[in-house]
Specification:
Length: about 850
Amino acid sequence: MIERLCVIAERYGIGGEALRELTELYEHALPRTPTQRIGDPHPTVPAPSTPEELKRRYIDVGLIAVGGFSEVREAWDGHVRRCVALKMQLPSRSSPDDCARFRQEVTLTAQLQHPGIVPLYDWGELPDGRIWFTMKRVRGDTIGRRIDALHSHRGAEFVRTLRRLLDDFRRLCEPVAHAHAQRIIHRDISPQNLMVGDLGEVHVMDWGLARDLGGSVAVPWAGGAASGPAAPDLSETSVRTRVAGTPFYMSPEQAHGEIAAMGPTSDVYAFGAVLYEILSGRPPYAPPRGEREGPEQTIERVQSGPPRPIEEVARIEVPKELHALCRRAMERAPAGRYADAGALMEAVRDWLDGADRQERAARIVEDARDAHCARIARMRAEADQRRARSREILDGLRSFHRAQEKAEGWRLEDEAAAIEQKALREEIYWTQKLRSALNEVPDMTQAHAALAEHYAESLLRAHAEHDQPAATRFAALLEDHARYLPEGGRARYEALLRGDARLTLVTAPEGARVAIKPYESVGRYLMPSDENALTTIAPLREFGLRRGSYLLLLTAPGYREVRYPVALGGDEHWDGVRPGGTAPYPIRLLREDELGADDVYVPGGWFIAGGDPRAGESLPRRRVWLDGFVIKQHPVTNAEFVAFLNTLVEEGRAADARRHCPIQPFGATMSDDAPLAYLLDARSGRYSLKSPETERALPVVFVDWPAAMAYAAYWARKTGLPWRLPSELEWEKAARGVDGRFMPWGDQVEPTWACVSGSHPERKSLMPVHEYRTDVSPYGVRGMAGNVRDWCVERWYLDGPRVEGDVVQVEVAPEDDPAFRPARGGAWISAGDLMRLAVRYSEPPTRRHGVLGFRLARQITV
């Protein structure tokens, strides 16, 4: 750049004194401190500045302090326009050894990159060999002044101030611990070299006596091997041949001049001596008040034996635990002290943590409750309100409505989700605060009780969601917190962890035989175990069982066997009480003549609806009550539907039969001229199957909702029973049972157990309703995970059927209502998660599709 500057000057006729001044100005503008990466493991010493640069760059502001070797002055750095502290050797201390000491201080200060160690900015050498350097200008109090202020207080104010000062002391140990980690010792720890800045920051000052135990510091020497005299020998024998340090605070080995014996524990002793002064108001070895003695006499007393015991001189308000801490730090033998400043720091921190831990912990628990619990409840209520409003909006729209019309509903959904995330974060903050209270007091009952309740709820939720890893984690956390509770508060959680549960069951008629079979996984297929079955007689009153899912088989002479699944959580009582009731709802057994061969009875009771996060449009998980009903084991078949159409023809309703006859489209789109799925005899008007042998047992498809309803009405007239299409929650309970399983056979999504895409190697297609006997629900209903979907009876609502007081309300949609209808179940084209039983579909009632069929259901009156 200088060469280029000369070329430019020549081009424009600049030379002589003007060119010299320009060149000098450019050189002075260059930064003297090289850029250094943060976290550099090998910090470098900045290049030295010349005496001329010292004069040009720094303006003396005034004296700060004078020591035995140097003076420190405040200076204005004109280069970067800030005040700095400029430390310079005194003219009387310019011997080679003293210069070497200053050089080493420069190097060590540059090496120790820590916020508590004043950073070095610039340095240089004067013509007489003296060294100077600049540092950050630190303003604040020394620990010495703070000790004086501490001992002006009495009683509780002294204790409070002591704790604050000990926290400063703890933080001042950290920079020295950093140095110890790099095998550097300070060797002059004293109250005057420990400072607390105006902003509360701490600084360990004056590293002039510091020693590098590892010998890895390369001391800068301006002359160098080629351009000046050889650098002086900086070994301990040449530079540290005399005792150095502040006598009151130096360790015995330092007082004896035992260089080889000095290490991190020597700094620990000095910190202990500072602590001695904090606790007593006077340094160790201080002469009696009113007397004076020189440094040599103090050093002799340090060499001869320990000072007065801290217990004799400490203020009466000082906690006795601090006596022991001070004694250990000032042990005469280095091996008896804390290993380094970091260990001392941790000991002081431990005392500070324990001194007020009960009070702090109580405040934390109270703050956690006041600041978070009410807010979490409020947020979740607000999210529920937004979600409900969103569902109202979206429920009134259809898939073909414009995105602009759905935007408000989407916005409310997004806001609800965002609020839920905030509530979750709030819950995390709450638990973190409770844990921080336990960091204060590990056995604090209030914090353990709150966390135990939280993890108990989380454990129940994990069991409900079939999340075994989460259940294992929450069980361990619950156990960890419950063990700290009194016996009375612990019992419920212990029962939950053991999985203790109770079953109450009343039957009509009484005295039914009850076989209780636990569900067990056999190759991931849940099977009721005969081997571990129990047999008893109803009624059962708080019958003890372990947590899990069970199939109860209820039998009595003259009655059809009832399959009654139950799901028991840990410490749960399955009491069978209907919402609003006070006594167990009796499970009615049906006589043989009350059920047809293809009828499946689903007794009234509680069950888990929705809650499958991988099922499209799944309802939120909710435990609801559904009164007893009967549902057909299989979907309606082609043979049965042809019989229905021919009955309509016989009744003179040929037009209705023609309207309800399945129509097969030519392609993906239905048209009015699409061919009938059945043969129509032109003379008789009757219908028949095109391939009776292969089609009769196949479920009917390509029927719309009115056709399915017409068939239900026909079957109700024929049997005298109130047959209809099932409600979608009746369908879901009949398919899933009561334990919230995702598939009829458990949670495994397995295509070989149902007629779905991937079930067989050949081309996928409909299968007869009696195929795939593994696709069977806990109640014995078949074909719920595959083959065909089933039309449901009510209107489609995003929130699902209406539920009042936890009781599902079955509401039949008017036949002329054009609103969408629900359809449930897997189908022969379903793949993967589309098999899941909580998946919900909505279709216009006129929809005809090759996967849409139906089955019938009817209510049971008690």
